[in-house]
Amino acid sequence: xxxxxxxxxxxxxxxxxxxLLASHKDTEIxxxxxxxxxxxxxxxxxxxxxGVCDVVLEEADAETAxxxxxxxxxxxxxxxSNEVISAxxxxxxxxxxxxxxxxxxxxxxxxxxxxxKHSCPELLKVSVYGLCELHREEIKKARLVGNPxxxxxxxxxxxxxxxxxxxxxxxxxxxxxxxxxxxxxxxxGQAYHFCExxxxxxxxxxxxxxxxxxxxxxxxxxxxxxxxLSFTPHLVPMKRGIFATEYANLKKPYTxxxxxxxxxxxxxxxxxxxxxxxxLPENNHVTGSNFVDIGLTVDERLGRVIVISNIDxxxxxxxxxxxxxxxxxxxxxxxEGLCGAGYYL
Length: 345
Known about the structure:
The protein is of the alpha/beta class. It folds into two domains: 125 residues, Rossmann fold (3-Layer(aba) Sandwich), CATH 3.40.50; 163 residues, 2-Layer Sandwich (Dihydrodipicolinate Reductase, domain 2), CATH 3.30.360.10. It is 31% helix and 20% strand. It has eleven helices and 13 strands. It has a seven-stranded mixed beta sheet with strand order 8-9-7-10-13-12-11. It has a six-stranded parallel beta sheet with strand order 2-1-3-4-6-5, sandwiched between helices. Helix 4 links the parallel strand 3 and strand 4. Helix 1 crosses helix 11. The relative contact order is 0.14. InterPro entries: AGPR, AGPR_AS, AGPR_dimerisation_dom, AGPR_type-1, NAD(P)-bd_dom_sf, Semialdehyde_DH_NAD-bd. Its main location: cytoplasm. Its EC number is 1.2.1.38. One of its GO terms (biological process) is L-arginine biosynthetic process.
């Protein structure tokens, strides 16, 4: 059995990790840490886990984790993660980090967009970007994985086949993405009170959201040239989900069928990517699952392709993807513990 620990277990992503790990046949939960709720049972913080995970939360350090765990998931805020992870890595543990601290190839890009100094930039040389569909072989050999963001996962997978096939222009890509409120985390904030976010929509961090740089990094690697794009996130009145609409100008006329073939070929062996041939994704098709659903249409009048991609921000956009990475790192079937369909209602 793989002994797993979660630091930051009581945030939304951390709690989803606990739920998934508790039902994973090859893992046992060896340690759960929470600074706020140390001393309480996980099931006292999240009563839905009563009888499923009654582990007592603790304030863990690297020494404790090294004694108890084979792999540690860190679901901590950016800037906090890199200090903890340095110690965990030195102890020989495998680490999967859900913050943005180890997603970047370039330290200057990270520090520019996150506005913090990275305390262990040397680890960026050994960390692997944990988008399994694109970096599978590197992840299998990694000891430190930077789990991708939710917006980034949805957007990158939505556009990757088009860039790989040199089908779209690279300088005028637009991504319009909507997120459920859980994407803001469990912390208190006026903008996320029920009366502030129900029956309304709002854009935020327009042209400045840090996930822009992460998306550009990965899409540039696929395209083999620098990608610059416009990314606008929106908060919508639902609990969970990322619904992204990507717009790109085609380099030459393509039919919808020709573009769909690119997607089917690119993702032909992927267990968690579902391509819609005759419809478009909807948020409730992926809620509670590790799937990414993708559909598209061609605007022949404008010579533009419009792609719809959709994930659950807490599963494929966070905890499910982290478990998928763990499976690869330990040589397990990639879909172990993640096979279930979502819940439609």
